[in-house]
Amino acid sequence: MNTISRLTLLLLLPLNLLANEGIEFFEAKIRPILVEHCYECHNSSGKAKAKLALDYKGGVLKGGSEGPAIAPGKPEESLLLKTIRHEFEDLRMPKNGPRLSKNVLEDFRKWIAMGAPDPRDKPPSAEQLAKTTSWEALRERRKKWWSFQPIKKQQLPEVAAKDWSGHPVDKFLLAGMEQAKLAPNEETDALAALRRLSFAITGLPPTPAQQETYAKEVEKDAGAATEKLVDDLLASPQFGERWARHWLDVAGFAETDGLEDDIIIG
Known about the structure:
Low-confidence stretches: 7-13
Distance between the termini: 70 Å
Strand content: under 5%
């Protein structure tokens, strides 16, 4: 290989690495969302609502009746991003579903800013599309959700403030705080702890009787006193009343029925 060829290879190598990185990002972050939320209504095999097909690169770039779906390198000018962000009152996607999570929206912004790398040069056949969007394929993708992964025993992180708390969960919290260069608050007094727990669980301030009882029990055994207090508050009617009111409000003012299909309430 001559000098010019070597120089050309060295110049092209970073571009190839960037291209591969972009394709990997698309396959990991973008394609699964398009398959699950978009292919059913926007495909090139017989159903392209608003004349928009999102199952191949050409369809995304061409767009539909509203114009091109994306402007590569310009996320804020891209119709697809605006639509899934719900920036238009009468054009919100996915249809009949909640807005995609902030992480997913950021992934799409980042993907478009990259230039929207997309290896799908040809539209899929009807058979390929049916296989990709089948319930079996959807089930396999959903099996990868974090909530379906088997529980694994985690090694406790090393923390600087070893005497802050002996509870395993607190060690993970403390490790995160130390990484963010934060420190736990000083230990509070019994009355402040009582008020915080009471407001958090029942939404009400503690009664004088609760204050007197808790103060006496803390002097004997603070841990046991706090555990009993939490159990008592969770068993109280006020705890049920507070959260019943919360969830009834959610149900009463919700825009959808909240089930798997998430149908808009008319």
